Each structure stands twice: as C-alpha cells, then as structure tokens.
C-alpha cells in the first residue's frame, strides 16, 4: 500500500516519486505511473483465449479487432501485426470462433491497454454451425441455390412487400431509401419477430400472406446486423424452403455484408444491407429521367440527321436535268411516236384492203357454188312433204304432192306420174 505521509518541508520532484510513494504534496507523474503499469503488465506471460471475433479492421497492413466471450459478458481489444497476419489463415473474419495466443501490452504514451496476438486459429464450427453447413450442402445438392431458378426482379414494382421487425431501423432504412429513389413506391409491410422462437413461424406466415397477394410484385425480408446466434432463424430449413417455393421474387436483406444465413443463398436476390435492398428493388427516378432525356436527345439527333439526309437526296434528284425540265425527255420522242403511229396506220390499212379483196373472192366463190345461183338460172328443186329431195321420177307416182322450190319462192304441185319415156331414167 502506498504511504500518504510526508516529511514536512520536503517536496521532491514528481519524476523522483514512485507511485507507491506518492502523496498529495509529492504526486507522481503520469509517465511514471504508466511506466510502472507497463512494468507490471510486462511480467505477464502469453495466454491462450477463446472468443468470437466481433471487429476486424485492417489498417496499414495491421489488424485491430475485438474478441467477445461466448456468453457476451466480456470483451477485449487486440492488435495483430502484419508479420503475424501473414502466418494466419486468410479466411478469418467477423463472427468466427477462434482461439488466440495473446500477450498483454500497455502503451505508456497513450495509456491504452490491449493485447498483441502472436497466433490465432479457428476453434471449429461447433455442433450448430456444423449442422447448418450440412444443411447448406443438402440444399445446394437439391438445386435450391441454382442461379437458373432465381426469378428476376420487376423493373418498377407497383407494390413492395416488406417483412421486418416492428419499428426497426431496417424498416426505416428500406422505406427512406426506396422513397428517395422512387417517391411513388408503395409498401405492404408485415411485422414479424426477427430473432428467437417466433422468428421462423411469423416470417413464414408473413411470406405466405404477401406471396398470395396478386398486387405484391416483390418481397423484401430485412433485418439489421447481429451475431450468428441471433441470425439462426434465417437459416431455418422451413423458412428457406418456403422462400424457395414462393412465386413472388424474394430479396434477402439480413444483417450486414459479412453475415451469410442460408436465406441469402436461396433468395432470388441477396442484398448486403436493408439500404442495398431498397436500391435494388426500385429504380432511381433521377437516373431514369436522365436516361429518358438522353434517349430523347439521341432520337432527336437521329431524326434530324435522317430528315437532313432525305432532303439532300431529294434536292439531288430535283437537280437532275430530266426532273428540272421534264419536257426535254418527251420532245425527242414526239416525232418517233408520230412515225410509229403513221406506220401502224398504213400497215392496218394495207391489211384491211387485202382482207376485203380476199373476202370478195370468197363471196364470189361461195355464190357460184350456192344452190340459189343454180335456181336463178331456171332450175327448180322438188321435194316431198318429208323434205326428201326428188331425184328419181319413180319417187312421185301419180297423185303425189310435191313442193317445188324456184329462185323466187316455192309452190305445190301434184304429180300425174312419171313420163313413159323417162321410166328408169333421171327425173
């Protein structure tokens, strides 16, 4: 125990007073106190400690982090020099359970107490984490993580379904960032427990309700960060299979970037944070307006270029002589057309004259051979009532009625019989 008694009238310099010998009129200095503490701490040996990594910050090649006890009641800070980091596994991260060899260190200048890590390794997944990894492998083998089965998000959802904790920061983040990007976005929010025994059944019930709503175009399941123990509900097989069976696209926004529950693998889209989920679900109205203006400008430019090109082509065509003076093309053809018409007219007339002569010759030949011409020469044709022409006098015995046709009409006669001298001859 330090003595607080002092010799009257003696005030030694502060640096000359050890902490155990300090008193109100002869205090020790901060540096002397820190040196004393450092000397005491330096006598401690290295210690193997087990805990969960809750912070892992890489600065200048060195790591500054924190370890938390399994029950969460205690925490320590550690530093890990780059030379030591090179010898450690490269997959160490926040949330890992590790055992580390640490040695206490006290900084005289700042008065900070920390531990320097000389070795660190994983302690294993543990029974619970091992079961999760087995389930992850089973679901992957069943194809539930296959990118081909994941549904695409709609470009602009009319109604967004949100499953999150009541009055949670995750809900505020999703609403705020989505409304900043697209002010007209609408939500249907169902609150559910995001940890504990109620987490899985309430989340499944909310998912079922939103998936059955035809107006809901996409569903977000959101929760803030947490340690692996509090996120176990989002690796539950019942919830994972319910998400895989949903017909509505599902976005997983559980925890932070380093958190990785099974829900992330089976969801159609994995968002690193609730804020990231809002950005993925709705487009940015400013970006879309800029895109529309860009497309309008491109369309205006293309249309102007096309019209200008067509006008230039039209002017080029109009400048040609044949279009500038169309009659110049017709005038040389006029005489040629008149010549062709005259030749055609002469050819038609000659052919008509030849046809008329041929017709007259045929008419004369036909008239010469016609029975009418014979009748005009005084001949007659006799035929019976049945129309049989009389060629033999014996065809008309006495009393037979005969029709006689002459050049100018016909008349009826009655036969008195063939003449005696003509019997057996021609009539």
From TrEMBL:
Q: What class of enzyme is it?
A: hydrolase
Please state every residue range assigned to the domain named Exonuclease VII large subunit C-terminal: 144-354
Keyword line: Cytoplasm, Exonuclease, Hydrolase, Nuclease
**Where is it mainly found?**
cytoplasm
Q: Output the GO biological process annotations, alphabetical, semicolon-separated.
A: DNA catabolic process
UniProt superkingdom = Bacteria
The Gene Ontology terms for molecular function here are: exodeoxyribonuclease VII activity; nucleic acid binding
Q: Which residues form the OB-fold nucleic acid binding domain?
A: 29-121
Location of the region described as Disordered in the Swiss-Prot/TrEMBL record: 1-29
Q: Which InterPro entries match?
A: Exonuc_VII_L, Exonuc_VII_lsu_C, OB-fold_nuc-bd_dom
State its Enzyme Commission number(s): 3.1.11.6
* Catalysis performed (reactions): Exonucleolytic cleavage in either 5'- to 3'- or 3'- to 5'-direction to yield nucleoside 5'-phosphates
Write out the annotated subcellular location: Cytoplasm
Q: Name one GO cellular component term.
A: cytoplasm
Keyword Hydrolase attached? yes
| PANTHER family (UniProt xref) | EXODEOXYRIBONUCLEASE 7 LARGE SUBUNIT
Oligomer status and interactors: Heterooligomer composed of large and small subunits.
Q: What is this protein called?
A: Exodeoxyribonuclease 7 large subunit
Q: Which gene encodes it?
A: xseA
């Amino acid at each position: 125990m330090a003595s607080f008694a002092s010799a009257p009238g003696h005030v030694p310099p502060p640096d000359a007073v050890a902490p155990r010998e300090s008193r109100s009129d002869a205090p020790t200095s901060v540096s002397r106190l820190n040196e004393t503490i450092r000397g005491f701490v330096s006598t401690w040996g290295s210690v193997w400690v087990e805990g969960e990594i809750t912070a892992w910050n890489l600065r200048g090649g060195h790591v500054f982090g924190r370890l938390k006890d399994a029950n969460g009641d205690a925490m320590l800070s550690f530093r890990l020099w780059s030379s030591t980091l090179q010898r450690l596994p490269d997959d160490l991260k926040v949330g890992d359970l590790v055992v580390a060899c640490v040695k206490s260190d006290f900084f005289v200048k700042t008065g900070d107490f920390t531990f320097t890590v000389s070795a660190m390794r994983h302690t294993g997944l543990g029974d619970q984490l091992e079961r999760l990894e087995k389930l992850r492998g089973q679901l992957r083998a069943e194809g539930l993580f296959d990118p081909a089965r994941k549904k695409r998000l709609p470009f602009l959802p009319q109604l967004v379904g949100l499953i999150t904790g009541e009055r949670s920061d995750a809900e505020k983040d999703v609403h705020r960032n989505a409304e900043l990007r697209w002010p007209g976005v609408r939500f249907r929010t169902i609150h559910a427990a995001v940890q504990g025994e109620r987490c899985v059944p309430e989340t499944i019930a909310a998912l079922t309700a939103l998936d059955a709503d035809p107006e809901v175009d996409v569903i977000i399941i959101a929760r803030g960060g947490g340690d692996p123990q509090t996120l176990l509900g989002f690796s539950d097989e019942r919830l994972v299979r319910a998400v895989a069976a949903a017909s509505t696209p599902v976005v997983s926004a559980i925890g932070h970037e380093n958190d990785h529950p099974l829900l992330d693998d089976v969801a159609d889209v994995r968002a690193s944070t609730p804020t990231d989920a809002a950005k993925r679900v709705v487009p940015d109205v400013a970006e879309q307006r800029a895109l529309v203006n860009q497309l309008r400008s491109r369309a205006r430019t293309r249309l102007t270029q096309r019209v200008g090109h067509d006008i230039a082509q039209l002017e080029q065509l109009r400048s040609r002589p044949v279009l500038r003076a169309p009659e110049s093309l017709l005038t040389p053809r006029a005489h040629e057309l008149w010549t062709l018409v005259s030749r055609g007219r002469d050819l038609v007339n000659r052919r008509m004259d030849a046809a008329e002569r041929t017709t007259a010759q045929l008419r004369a030949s036909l008239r010469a051979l016609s029975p009418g011409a014979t009748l005009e020469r005084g001949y007659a044709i006799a035929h019976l009532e049945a129309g049989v022409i009389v060629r033999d006098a014996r065809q008309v015995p006495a009393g037979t009625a005969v029709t006689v046709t002459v050049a100018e009409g016909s008349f009826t006669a009655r036969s008195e019989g063939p003449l005696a001298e003509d019997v057996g001859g021609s009539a």
